[in-house]
């Protein structure tokens, strides 16, 4: 979830905390003021605001936001504001949890987050997931997904992948051939081959596989 913009001159977390407190007071919450402040701060600034708010008012800003804004904003905006208050790994953990436990499991949402993160980012997500929800991410994937989709997500969250920029061209060509045989040249699809390659290869390596694969078509 990206922020809109950050002021060129750093703002004071203390001043922001005071402005938010004032926005909460009175007969109704000044939602425009709240959104305007939080939408124009980056993750570090919002973290400092939360610390100042807790220090000054002995209150949890995230819980106060949930209470004050509930029913006053459209659901997507309300959700975005609450997610802004978490660091990237914590935000990803919440998005995945909501996707897996929704009334209609939103595998696209969980898959987009998990498959677009580096191994080191996934490790942070897994730590946040267990800390926030008291269950391991792998357990929720196991319990709320099925079939090849389950295998893909479990492979992504448990397999080590190189994160550097170096590429093995020979391996890329071999992987491209294996993918072609597993898909285009096969009646049906050999999902096991796709899962193995996509979960084990680095982002740079996958970038080298793509043109090699297209050359075969």
TrEMBL record:
Keywords: Annexin, Repeat. GO terms for biological process: response to stress. It holds the Pfam family Annexin. It comes from the Eukaryota. The keyword Repeat applies. The keyword Repeat applies. One of its GO terms (molecular function) is calcium-dependent phospholipid binding. PANTHER family: ANNEXIN (PTHR10502), ANNEXIN B11 (PTHR10502:SF102). Belongs to the annexin family. This is Annexin 5 isoform 3. It comes from Theobroma cacao (Cacao).
């Amino acid at each position: 979830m990206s922020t809109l913009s950050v002021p060129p001159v750093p703002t004071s977390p203390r001043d922001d905390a005071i402005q938010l407190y004032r926005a909460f007071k009175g007969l109704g919450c000044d939602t425009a003021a709240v959104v305007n402040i939080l939408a124009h701060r980056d993750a570090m600034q919002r973290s400092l605001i939360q610390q100042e708010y807790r220090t000054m008012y002995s209150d949890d800003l995230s819980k106060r936001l949930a209470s004050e804004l509930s029913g006053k904003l459209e659901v997507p905006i309300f959700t975005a504001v609450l997610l802004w208050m978490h660091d990237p790994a914590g935000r990803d953990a919440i998005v995945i949890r909501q996707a897996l436990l929704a009334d209609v499991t939103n595998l696209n949402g969980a898959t987009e987050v998990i498959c677009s993160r580096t191994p080191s980012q996934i490790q942070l997500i897994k730590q946040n997931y267990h800390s926030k929800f008291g269950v391991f991410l792998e357990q929720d994937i196991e319990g709320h997904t099925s079939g090849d989709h389950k295998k893909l997500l479990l492979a992504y969250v448990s397999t080590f992948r190189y994160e550097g920029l170096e590429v093995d061209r020979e391996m890329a060509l071999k992987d491209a051939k294996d993918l072609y045989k597993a898909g285009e040249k096969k009646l049906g699809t050999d999902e096991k081959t796709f899962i193995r390659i996509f979960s084990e290869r680095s982002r740079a390596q996958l970038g080298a596989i793509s043109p090699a694969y297209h050359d075969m078509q």
